Amino acid sequence: MNTASAPAVPLRWHRPLTATGIGLAALAVFALAAMLVDDRTLMGESVWVKVFKFSFAFSAYNLTLAWLIGHMTRARRFGWWSGTAFAVISVFEVGVVAMAASLGTYSHFNTSEELSNTIVQGAFQYGVPTMFMINIVMAIVVLWQRIGDRAVTAVIRWGLLLSTLGMAAAFFILGVAEQERRVAEDAYGDPVELSAGHGVGDPDGNGMFLTGWSVTGGDLRVPHFLGLHGIQVLIVAALVLGALAARSAWLRDERVRARIVHSLGLGYLGVCVTTVWQAARGQSLIDPDAATLAAFAASAAVALIGIAVTIATARKNAPAEEQIPADFAREAEAVTDDDWEPAVPLR
């Protein structure tokens, strides 16, 4: 059984991304604490909810990229500089969201001409497209190299594809979501004019707890979130497969684990595409119609069938474990300490 892997490369986590990830995790903890002591709200939820969501999401993605770049076997210098640029932009992106929250106003879709909002919108306008391009180029570079064993390579390739599509969903939001201008109140009751929104059918939505995803219409933040965090889901799946391989001989072949990851990635992609289609039709995630349920079922079926075929084939082709002949086992059990004699006399 061939389980040869790519040449080992010492794992060195990307320091700027790692430091940024840890710092943003600390900000997420701060935002949680701020929710408890700061009673200011925007559209019925704490002004710090968005800070928590952004800092948590960016922390997870920065740490994931830090791990990924540490596994690269080619273009490592390019990976280092790309990761550093991504870390710097992450600080600005989350920073402006936190600044808007501290001022008790909206960070997204705010049309105010105040200096603070000009800074916020400028960060979104230039930072988001730059991050998107970095992710695309990183995905292309990774396609041309083996990173770790086949399973790890599959995780990283699928993860970068899904995260790139998740980022693309942010641009799709602007073209599909409601574009109407409306006036909302900031945390102090002052009017703020907003333009566009996250939702289809209901621009601001009446959101679920913590996520804020709309329960009254379509919400394109759902595929945005699922795409961005697909790589973490697949990393967990690969870790589980690696742990199970210790007890299942047929899973020790990295090609088998890679095929399972490919099946999971394809099914996950189907789920992401389905949520885009669902949101674009103005349908809430928690209120799917028959067509949406069928699409979700098809995505799950693709993944499950692929995994089932892979497992069946791997078990069939796995070498049979050596068995002790039954008659030899019975003779061995009948031998007692009194019957045993050393082959060479003991002196």
SSE topology string: HEEHHHHEEEEHHHHH
- Spatial order of the strands forming the largest sheet: 1-2
What is the overall pLDDT average?
Answer: 84
Uncertain runs are 1-7, 321-325, 342-347
Assign the structural class, choosing from mainly alpha, mainly beta, alpha/beta, alpha+beta, or little secondary structure: mainly alpha
From the spread of the alpha carbons, the general shape counts as globular
Report the β-strand fraction as a percent range: 5-15%
Number of strands: 6
User: What value does the Rg take, in angstroms?
Assistant: 26 Å
Helix amount: 55-70%
First-to-last CA distance: 46 Å
In short:
With 347 residues, the protein is mainly alpha-helical. It has helices at residues 15-37, 49-71, 76-102, 115-143, 150-176, 221-228, 230-244, 254-280, 290-317, 326-334, and strands at 41-42, 45-46, 181-185, 191-195, 199-200, 218-219.
What keywords describe this structure?
mainly alpha, two-stranded antiparallel ribbon, 6 strands, disordered N terminus, disordered C terminus
